[in-house]
């Protein structure tokens, strides 16, 4: 199981199919993290639940494809 402490600011987030989906801004509680809006196509913050994380090394690797991530992440207006 992935722990919130494993995910830190500025880590690259990569989908299961190898696509860059964002950069970690910070953890938002214990169950999700926020992506930077400066690295977003729409200029908004997006949130990714920890349950989507497959593993963490120097990057955060997700268990979902880029399309699945982008269609299901939460957006902050």
What does this structure look like?
The structure is a single chain. The chain has 77 residues and is mostly beta strands. The chain contains 1 helix and 7 strands. It has one helix at residues 66-72; strands at 12-14, 20-27, 32-35, 45-49, 53-56, 59-62, 74-76. The chain has a 7-stranded mixed sheet with strand order 5-6-1-2-3-4-7, with helices on one face. The longest helix is centred in the last third of the chain and has 7 residues, at 66-72. It is globular.
Briefly summarize what is shown.
With 77 residues, this protein is mostly beta strands. The chain is 9% helix and 40% strand.
SSE diagram, text form:
Blueprint: E1 12-14, E2 20-27, E3 32-35, E4 45-49, E5 53-56, E6 59-62, H1 66-72, E7 74-76
Parallel strand pairs: 1-6
Antiparallel strand pairs: 1-2, 2-3, 3-4, 4-7, 5-6
What would the keywords be for this entry?
mainly beta; 77 residues; 1 helix; single chain; seven-stranded mixed beta sheet; 9% helix
């Amino acid at each position: 199981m992935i722990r919130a402490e494993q995910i830190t600011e500025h880590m690259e987030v990569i989908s299961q199919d190898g696509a860059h989906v964002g950069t970690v801004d910070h953890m938002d509680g214990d169950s999700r993290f926020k992506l930077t809006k400066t690295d977003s196509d729409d200029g908004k913050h997006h949130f990714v639940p920890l349950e989507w994380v497959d593993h963490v090394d120097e990057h955060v690797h997700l268990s979902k494809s880029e399309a699945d991530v982008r269609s299901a992440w939460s957006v902050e207006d």
